């Protein structure tokens, strides 16, 4: 290996210009690449060897900029980055060595810029391959190494953002990988996460993942959910379909909120504020032509319904009276609309009709999620319990205790909500008791209209047998 490095160093000093000289350098680079596939060879690498590679990269960059044997120059550059990529595989020693080679990183940045300029005038697929190798190298040297992660992100983030413009699937996936590796290793560094370049990267990754279902993109979104203020920076830049992807990932992540990787409180607060300001759009679900997409708000309600079940993790959400008021008003509005005829918000209690329900519609499970949110916010929170009573929310929730094919398990969630609303709250228990009595009295009166003698006694309807002479 040392002989090969010496030969490369000698060749670089003579500044190759002819095709044969570049081909010779390319052959030497291939030998180095193959050496780095062997673990015992990787561990022999020295800072001087890296300096030789930097000289070779600089030489290739110069050749690209001056249009000198571009094809051969690019081939040589590709093999150099394959060498660097291979030398980092499961080799912390070489990662440490690279952490002190900021000049190598900056020269690699120059490589990306030279290749991007070259690709404007040439559609040569080999240039894309070289860019892939550079990004793979950045990914391998940053895995599990925080110093390299910080260096790479500081130097390369702007160039990495531009790679999405090339619309190459593998290159985009590798870029998502580097973004995830570098940013997830710096979860506590909020300044990095909310910088303009990082916000642009998050937007690019989310956009690409929405279109192409990139696993690395999903991992990065999971990390973003944990970072304070990230939603308020990123979401104004996203389309509705992209927001929905983030929310789907967040819903899965919320299921893991019992551990120390909990979702950021400020991101949940952002969702709560957005839901409160845009909740009116849900009523447009009944309209054929919608100016705004209510699906995002429906998904926010689902998220808040789960988040509020973690009473100790997100107390600010659970005690948000404005949020609770908004949810009660919304449930009341769609409940009244549902009573006005056969529409999206109407209850479906006939088995024969349940097979025709569109389970993919945004309104599916909406009332259930609103009841769930009300019940969770009432849990061991007397101010919220009182607010629900003052807004006539108790009879409203009781009205949801019937079977509804559009809202599976709404009966169970309504019963739980009533339990939480009335627990240790005598005023609410009194309201509930009076409502039950009124309901029984109405049923008794109805029976009497049909000639059945009935009376309410001990919270039960007692049907009397007819007199013998009748």
From TrEMBL:
Short name of one Pfam family for this protein? Atx10homo_assoc
Q: Can you cite an annotated GO cellular component?
A: cytosol
Q: Which Gene3D superfamilies would you find in this protein's record?
A: Leucine-rich Repeat Variant (1.25.10.10)
SUPFAM superfamilies referenced in this protein's UniProt entry, alphabetically:
ARM repeat
| UniProt keyword Cell division, yes or no | yes
- Please provide the Gene Ontology terms (biological process) for this protein: cell division; neuron projection development
* Location of the Ataxin-10 domain: 366-462
Keyword line = Cell cycle, Cell division
Q: Does the keyword Cell division apply?
A: yes
Tell me, in a sentence or two, what this protein's role is.
May play a role in the regulation of cytokinesis. May play a role in signaling by stimulating protein glycosylation. Induces neuritogenesis by activating the Ras-MAP kinase pathway and is necessary for the survival of cerebellar neurons. Does not appear to play a major role in ciliogenesis.
Family per similarity comment = Belongs to the ataxin-10 family.
What is the protein's name according to its record?
A: Ataxin-10
What is the scientific name of the source organism?
Mytilus coruscus (Sea mussel)
The root-end lineage is: Eukaryota, Metazoa, Spiralia, Lophotrochozoa, Mollusca
């Amino acid at each position: 290996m040392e002989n090969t490095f010496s030969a490369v160093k000698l060749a670089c000093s003579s500044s190759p210009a002819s095709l044969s000289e570049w081909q010779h350098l390319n052959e030497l680079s291939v030998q180095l690449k193959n050496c780095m596939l062997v673990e015992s060879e990787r561990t022999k690498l020295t800072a001087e060897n890296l300096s030789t590679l930097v000289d070779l990269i600089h030489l290739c960059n110069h050749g690209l900029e001056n249009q000198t044997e571009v094809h051969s120059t690019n081939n040589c550059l590709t093999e150099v980055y394959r060498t660097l990529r291979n030398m980092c595989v499961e080799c912390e020693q070489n990662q440490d060595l690279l952490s002190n080679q900021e000049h190598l990183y900056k020269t690699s940045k120059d490589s990306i810029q030279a290749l991007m300029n070259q690709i404007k005038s040439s559609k040569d697929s080999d240039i894309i391959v070289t860019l892939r190798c550079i990004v793979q190298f950045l990914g391998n040297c940053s895995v599990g190494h925080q110093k390299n992660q910080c260096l790479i992100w500081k130097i390369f983030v702007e160039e990495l953002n531009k790679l999405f413009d090339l619309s190459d699937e593998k290159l985009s996936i590798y870029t998502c990988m580097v973004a995830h590796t570098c940013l997830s290793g710096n979860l506590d560094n909020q300044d990095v996460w909310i910088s303009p370049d990082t916000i642009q990267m998050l937007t690019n990754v989310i956009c690409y993942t929405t279109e192409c279902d990139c696993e690395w993109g999903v991992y990065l979104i999971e990390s973003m959910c944990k970072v304070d203020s990230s939603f308020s920076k990123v979401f104004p830049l996203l389309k509705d379909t992209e927001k929905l992807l983030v929310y789907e990932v967040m819903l899965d992540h919320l299921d893991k909120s019992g551990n120390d990787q909990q979702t950021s409180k400020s991101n949940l607060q952002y969702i709560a504020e957005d839901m409160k300001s845009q909740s009116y759009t849900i009523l447009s679900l009944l309209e054929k032509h919608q100016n705004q997409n209510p699906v995002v708000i429906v998904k926010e309600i689902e998220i808040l319904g789960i988040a509020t079940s973690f009473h100790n993790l997100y107390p600010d959400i659970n005690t948000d009276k404005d949020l609770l008021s908004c949810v009660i008003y919304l449930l009341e509005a769609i409940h009244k609309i549902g009573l006005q005829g056969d529409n999206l918000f109407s209850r479906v209690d006939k088995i024969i009709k349940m097979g025709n329900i569109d389970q993919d519609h945004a309104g599916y499970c909406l009332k259930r999620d609103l009841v769930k949110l009300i019940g969770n916010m009432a849990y061991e929170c007397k101010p919220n319990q009182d607010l629900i009573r003052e807004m006539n929310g108790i009879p409203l929730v009781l009205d949801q205790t019937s079977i509804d094919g559009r809202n599976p398990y709404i009966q169970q969630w309504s019963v739980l909500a009533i339990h939480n609303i009335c627990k240790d709250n005598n005023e609410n228990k009194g309201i509930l008791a009076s409502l039950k009595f009124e309901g029984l009295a109405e049923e008794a009166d109805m029976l009497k209209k049909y000639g059945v003698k009935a009376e309410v006694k001990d919270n039960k309807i007692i049907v009397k047998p007819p007199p013998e002479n009748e």
